[in-house]
Write a structure and sequence with these properties.
14 strands; seven-stranded antiparallel sheet; 7 helices; alpha+beta; Alpha-D-Glucose-1,6-Bisphosphate, Chain A, domain 4
């Protein structure tokens, strides 16, 4: 394993043959992972919208029932492929599922993967043993997304540090006092609703990082969350890492919906940014 890989496992009282169907049948996958489809053939579909709102899509590489499944997929179609391996062990009444998740490029991405798999495997354990109702996990897992952009950080920074730049890809900017401690206020539409998001600029490092306290006004959160954008040079362009944390600050009955909304919402925002920066098609 490399430093950018994660390995985690879960043991079961059930046998390999009893656990395996929960890894491949859509009706049983729904009981612990989310709405998912894994086609057991090379280049077969690998898709999941997990309980925390993350949306993964890719293809199967290796399928050897009932002991091994390997696939690659992307999170919201934004970044490089993540390689996933599920391997079952056990020749008796018990068994163990080993999960390997490769291509995690930052501590934030590795932490996101660790928390996601830990909570998902706890849900799998409950589903296999029948010890509880269908779980809805992941409400407080940070949203972590990476996008590859076709401009270097120096060229991108005005899109993160000026009202006119932010208005091109985030939202209508009603206020943005571009200095640590400054206030901001964004207005947008989400699923037919007017949305006002506001807070304070907590950190600005030119050409590198913007961190904001962040609250959806009128939603009764009780405390702000935190949104951080980090730009890194990469192959003549840049890699953008977005990390939205603090969902545990939101009332429990609202946190899951907020986390799911921001997972898909931020993915759409990053796709808009990538399209903004894409070269114009040749005439």
């Amino acid at each position: 394993m490399g430093s950018d890989d994660l390995r985690i496992y879960r043991s079961f009282r059930a046998s390999v043959d009893q656990v395996w169907p929960h890894l491949v049948r859509p009706d049983l996958l729904a009981g612990w992972l989310g709405a998912a489809e894994l086609e057991l053939a090379p280049a077969g579909t690998a898709r999941a919208r997990t309980w925390n709102g993350d949306d993964w899509a890719g293809h199967v590489k290796v399928a050897s029932p009932p002991v091994r499944l390997e696939f690659v997929w992307k999170l919201f179609g934004l970044e490089e492929e993540h390689a996933i391996s599920w391997r079952m062990e056990g020749d008796g009444p018990g068994s163990r599922l080993n999960v390997t998740h490769e291509n995690l490029r930052s501590p934030e991405e590795k932490s996101h993967a660790r928390r996601t798999w830990r909570e998902a495997l706890d849900a799998l354990h409950a589903a296999v043993d029948g010890t509880g109702p269908r779980p809805e996990w992941g409400a407080t897992i940070p949203v972590v997304l990476r996008a590859v952009l076709q401009r270097p950080p120096a060229h991108l920074w005005p899109l993160f540090s000026t009202p006119s730049g932010l208005a091109k890809w985030v939202a209508e900017v009603q206020q943005f006092d571009a200095a640590p401690g400054g206030a901001f206020r964004f207005r947008s539409q989400y699923q037919g609703r007017e949305v006002i998001e506001e807070g304070r600029i907590e950190e600005m490092v030119p050409e590198s990082r913007l961190r904001l306290s962040w609250e959806w006004r009128g939603e009764g959160w009780g405390a702000p969350t935190s949104v951080e954008f980090t730009l890194e040079p990469r192959n003549g362009g840049a890699s953008l890492l977005l990390v939205h944390t603090g969902f545990e600050q939101i009332a429990a009955e609202r946190a899951a919906a907020a986390r799911r909304s921001y997972a898909s919402g931020w993915a759409g925002v990053l796709r808009d940014l990538a399209r903004l920066l894409a070269p114009a098609p040749a005439a």
